[in-house]
Each structure stands twice: as C-alpha cells, then as structure tokens.
Here is the input.
Amino acid sequence: LHLSAVKLAELHSDLKIQEKDELSWKKLKAEGLDEDGEKEAKLRRNLNVIMTKYGMNGKKDSQLVDTNYIKEGTESDTLDDPRLEKLWSKAKTSGKFSDEELDKLWREFKHHKEKIHEYNILLETVSRTEDIHKNVINPSEENLVKEEILHNKHRELKEKLRSINQGFERLRKVSHQGYDTTSEFEEPRVIDLWDMAKSANFTEKELESFR
Here is the structure.
C-alpha cells in the first residue's frame, strides 16, 4: 500500500475499532436485535470507508481526504435482481405502507442487495484461488494451509448464502404482509389468497370456511 508509519498506525487503530464494533454486532444478532439489518449495513459502510480511506478498495487514487461522509449503500437505485424488483413494486402499490415504512423497507432492500454483492465478490475470489491452487503440482505445508483457508472461505460462503435466503424470505413476508405484526397470516402466498378471497363474492360463512 506504500503507507507511511503514521498511516499504518491509523489503519491499525481503525481496524481495531471496526473489529470491536463487529463483535458487539454479532452479540446483538445472536439475540435477534438486528432483524432489519440496519446495524449490519452500517458496519459494512464503515468498512467501505476504511478501505477507501487507505486505498484498499482496488481503485487508484481513491484515498479520501474527508472520511466523514460516504454515500449510503450503492450508487445505483436499482436492485439488480428481478425477484427483488418484483417484490418492491408489489410493496409500493399495495397500500400497506406509510411513506416512512416504505423508506424503511427500501433500506432493507438495499441492504439485501449489498449482501448479494458481497457474496458474489467472495465467490469470485474463492473461484480464482481454487484455480491457482489446482495448478500447483507439489504439495507442501504452505499448500495445506491454503487448503484450510479455502475450506474456511467455503464455510463463509455457505453462511452468507443462508443469510441471503433468510433475508429474502423476510423481505417476501414484509412486502406481502406489511410491518403490521397483528396480521393473522404470515406466509406470503396465503396472504395473497386471503386478499383475493376477501375481494371475491363470498358469503360470510364461505369466507369463514376459507379462513
């Protein structure tokens, strides 16, 4: 990185703070206190600030002079996923959300998009590392260490994918149900059917039977 001793010390300090914040977040997550992913997204943005500040994001001349500001999420306002776009469109036109709730839901969608982006970067990194590893003919202690690292990365990929799937299911549920926790149904497909039934020409008895 060609950083001065002072800059390296600053980097070390920033990373120690980031590590402490991430450990605190892991405890919160284990207690179910970051369901909407807001704190996780803040940690991700803080790490992006650090990487940009010290020129570690792969872009030339990208070190920040002022690191107190960084755009929230990604620059694009698109979700880059037809399933997410469909859910977001449904939520916007459902009438189940206030403007404030729509803002909150949009942030959740953006957090999910960032998760997918991180997963794809890790997947590409692992794939390249595997390609290099396969081309090594002679086994050595160093290669055994690299195999262990690859194994850990695969486990991390699996955990990220599980988190993505769980996050999508939450978005699917909230998009159909709204943030109202008093709804009598939770499964999005059931909520759709119930909405259709209520707008159909059923008698009260038929509707009750359908419920």
Residues 61-75 have pLDDT under 50 and may be disordered. The longest helix spans residues 141-177. The helical segments are 5-30, 38-53, 82-94, 99-134, 141-177, 188-199, 204-210. The chain has three domains: 5-54, 82-179, 180-210.
